Amino acid sequence: MANYPTLPIMVGSEEEWEDDLEMDIAVNGAAKVRAFYPTKKKRFKVVHHYLTETQKNTLQTFYDANRLLVVQFLWTDSVSYNCLFKSVRVSPLEVSYWNAESILRQQ
Question: Is the pLDDT confidence value at 20 over 90?
Fold first, then answer.
């Protein structure tokens, strides 16, 4: 399993819980909640600002090589999570610098 590249994680990055809860409402108004898998999973939006061309290429190459594989991702809480990519977006910032955003979901 490959490790997500060591790039600075910037303000705007987010961690959120994804849960599979489904609520049904009976004809009498009573609610019933079901879960389809046993535990919640985390979703990460990882923002990188002012990446150099080398850093941008590292992220894009890593994504291309691992986009369908489980990768290890070290979050700001110093815990490693096994994740799958949902997407990576890269946008030019100014000459020779880029912003990037990765979306990862805990496996």
Answer: no
